[in-house]
Amino acid sequence: MSFKQWLMVFIRAGVLCAIVPAGVFAARVVDKGPIVDSLYMIHFLDGEYSHSTWGQSTQLWLEKLDTTAAKLPSTYTITSADDADFSGGKNPVAVGKKSKAADFNGWNTTYFQEHYIFLALPNPMKRGKSYTISMGSLGNNITLTYNEFTLRSEAIHVNQYGYSPVATAKYAYISMFMGTFKGLELEARQGAAFHVVRDGQSTPLFSGTIGKRKDLETGGADYYPECRGAQQLWYGNTYASTVMADVWECNFTGFAGEAGYTGNYRVVVEGMGSSFPFRMDNKVYFDAWKDCMHGIFMQRSACAKDASITPWAQPARHAGLSYKETSAQGANGSECAIPSLTGQTLTGLDGGYYDAADYDKWTDHLDVTRSLCWAYELRPSIFSDGDLAIPENANNVPDILDEAAWMVAWCLRGQTAAGGIRGSSWECNSQWYIGPAETRASLYFSAEANHLALCMEMAGVTQITGPYYNDVTLTRTNLLAKAKAAYDYAMAQSDKTADFDKYYYAQAMMYRVTGDAQYQTAYKTNNPITTATTSLAPELCSGSTNPYSQSGSWWMEWPVKTYLMTNHANRDAAFYNTQKEAFINWFTYDRLEMSQTHQPFRRGGHRRMPPVVGEIAYANTYPQAIAYFGLGLDQQWLDPIYTSCDYTLGGNPLNMCFMANCGQRWLKEVMHDTYSNPLGVAKGIQSYHQMGSFGLLVSATNVVSAGTFGWTTLRPM
Asked: What is the 3-class SS of 449-468, one letter each residue?
């Protein structure tokens, strides 16, 4: 099933939820705390399912919130024994409400809701004073002593892993969409003090004042600011703002932590509250990368997930299958529309990664190889054997390259005698099928097999070995030969230039690994990047002020980046400089301006994508990483790598780490086959599509997180 089909299931589920009658019971309070000193939040949950069986759920409890009573100021009374402003009891002056999906009943379209109730107090609470909030029939009284240093405010967003002491950009953000109360307004608190403190303590270690990052009404769109049409592209909706509220910030870049201290810190904003706790050490991004890699490992097909490696142990599945060969590729999302069969049955095709929402395998999953090889190439000194818990551990190969080889090995198993690479395998009604060799797949494999061989050379590795690699020869020599065979196969096909990206990417990588002038000539021939102002990914937009609103159908990001990393004596200097200038100009426009100006939480993704298909959860910062680490450009290219990692790991509108079982809060309703595990979805699994880079320490992973889709809405609403 395709991602789009699952998305429509999700949308329909939202419609069904809207017509479910409200209950009249006391829902459970699962969180509470001040937003600011005059606004208090109570978070209710209607019910909970146990997900003990794949695709099915059991209701554990149901206590629906009486939403009619919850919206009435008279339902609540705030009293205080030591604050005269609340003596005798006061009602809120107004009540706001925000509701959204929380827990789904397996594959069904029913789910429980969660409700955020916001109480606008008649007076601010005072530090050190005690308060009691009675809720009548909605639940037990809430008692608290107001202290910004001990009470968390949901409006303060931080990276829940932490920050590197040497990070060149460290920010906490303040923002809150509150449903019927709209966005949190803080103009009256302009210049309020914030502090970085040790968790559980109140001594400021670093202090500053909050400042407005982006105004909702006047700050412009969060993506593709020049093109209203692009903002309305997906399902006719406008996503001009991914936040729906003002965004303020606390800049603590000048704080590098304390020598010898290994505990957590918090950001505290006076008159509000504190953030989630976070670390500050040099392993923060490395640990995030390892957790991400665990998620990738869990996507392996035909690979046992042993208990010695992961708590989410599983036997090897889909191993030793027989595949019926088809005469054409299957259609993702229409797996049972089987092309005609050739009559051949193939075996020995284990491996690969599962696709989104099902167990299909596609050569697009070479994205994993591409991502990991670029990460290794940009920072080879930080990766080693033993970094990861994988079966290939302790084979004298950096573990990142062991994982990078997984998809290459699957392609090798299906490579035809003519050198072609098969594009996909899929299942329909318990029968497995595999497509024929195709040009696009062969081009992509050629580039990635060459790149893996290049990284192996950098690492001083002659062969990658492991218990699942005994049937393939993963030597540099063989990879280069197989890459050349796939390239030659593709060049003999009439549709070799149908996919500009893969065609020129393969040409650039062939030139890069061989230095042979014929590949540079092929790369230059009809190359669309002919001037310093040519768009690397043109897109016309009627009425756009976009300087790159150009006609064309190419996507030249990866080919250009690859060519720029060449350094052969026969390199065409003038052509190279034009490509480099085009790269810098395009990505300054497409990435730097977005993180610097338009994205309120400094997410460094490209400007033309709305917050769908994973874009809200990650940012592809490879252009910035290649610019900084590969081409030696200045710090402005490094900053968005940090801030994009921080965004993915919690510094985002949802105050959520976009990897399962990571951080203080994470996506839990993820469609994945570890969904029914008592531990929850496997650590590191991400919402649909690609994961962002983990910056300076480990570059980017940017992987296809196959088999996943976040049920819980990623919108702030």
From this structure: HHHHHHHHHHHCCCECCCCC
Structure tokens at 91: 């009602």
Query: What whole-number distance in Å separates Cα of residue 264 and Cα of residue 70?
Result: 36
Q: Span 408-425, mean pLDDT?
A: 97
Q: Give the three-state DSSP class for 334.
A: strand
- The token duo for 144 is 């608290």
**Backbone torsions φ then ψ of 120, nearest 5 degrees:** -85, 110
Share of the chain above pLDDT 70, in %: 85
Tell me the Ramachandran region of residue 118: left when phi exceeds 0, alpha when psi lies from -120 to 50, beta otherwise: beta
User: Sign of the C-alpha dihedral, residues 187, 189, 190, 196?
Assistant: negative
Nearest to 81 by CA among 140, 130, 154: 130
Alpha carbon distance 383, 629 (integer Å): 15
Which is nearest to 207 in space by CA: 167, 161, 250, 243?
A: 250
Quote the CA–CA distance of 425 and 201 in Å, as a whole number: 56
Buried b (16+ CB within 10 A) or exposed e, 395-419: bebbbbbbbbbbbbbbbbbbbeeeb
Give the C-alpha separation, 504 to 558, whole Å.
Answer: 9
Cα–Cα distances in angstroms (integers) from residue 267 to residues 150, 188, 206, 252, 394, in the given order: 11, 20, 9, 9, 40
pLDDT tens across 368-391, in order? 999 999 999 999 999 999 999 999
> Which tens digits make up the pLDDT trace of 433-480?
999 999 999 999 999 999 999 999 999 999 999 999 999 999 999 999
> What is the per-residue DSSP string for 133-178?
EE-GGG-S-EEEE--TTTSB-TTEE--SSEE-TT-S--EEEE--B-
